[in-house]
Predict the structure.
Amino acid sequence: MMILVGGEKGGSGKSCLAQNLAVYFTRDKNAIVLMVDCDPQRTTSDWIQARNTDPTLPAINCIQLYGKIRNDLLSLNQHYDYVVIDCGGQDNLALRAAMSVADHVVIPLRPKRRDLKTVPHMEDMLSTCKMVNPKLLASFLIAQCPALPSQLKRINEAKEVCGSYGINVLKAVTYNRNIYDDSEEQGLSVLELDPEGKAAIEMIAIAEELMAMTPDDSYEFN
Amino acid sequence: MSLIDLKKSNVSNAKKKKVTVDEFIADAENYAVGKPEVVSSEKMTLDQAITTKAPAVETNWPKRLTTKPKLPKRHATFSLSEDAIAQLNLLSRESKLAKSHLIRILVNEFFYEEQTRKLARLLKSEID
């Protein structure tokens, strides 16, 4: 299965989500996972490098690919249970090539105007992609939400905005938590640093929601 | 500030143009240079921005002004073929605009065309 974490907006937590999903499938599903880092910033590659210094952690392979990577991904997908692709914050060849073969695409967005303004372009890209990849399941994820109860309205509004474009919006959200940064620096997932913590519960909820989605085979999003 | 104004405002029933996988992927390069052809291709072009802006500017003029202040103009003499003169006469009758006015509009539009298109049109022209 191929899961793409992408989007046009930088800093919305794509690498963090991709890394935590990769650990979830490795640790909780006992799967063989490959991470594909398409971001020239190499955030995920550096994370894997830090991770590989600790032999007690389950190994995850990582490869850097750029450009028209469609055939590479199709080939790699045959050798792994899960291929998790981390695409940097811009619309480029790698993002579209990955989208054209992925089973899932998750687009994290912060509940901020500057992030939500990328939704129309993403929706246009997703619905065009659906014509060439009918199995594609697409979801927006509202990420890095402010934890203050007074900001709940903002989170719900962000979901409403994304939902108005006819693309699925995950019920699960992630909140702004230091543990995401702390775990990344050590090559860990929040699932490993604090398995019972709130961040771990958020990541498991996202993964389980994605896995519970009904497979699709249509040329339009319903 | 509420985010609700960012909700999708118009529901388009327009059918999407069929594209191949390669066209979809390659269009990322067009998008990167601001000229998408497949995704988000309905964005306003430079020409559209110029022509769309013009009426908006006019409507913003103070109400006491019933006509635009006229910029100074001067006579200029150019040679036109009989065909061009006939076409200009016809355009003037149909549009109810003065021939000089029509030429000013055409020159203005032509002037703001992209360099490559301008050159391409000049090179293709069969007018001597």
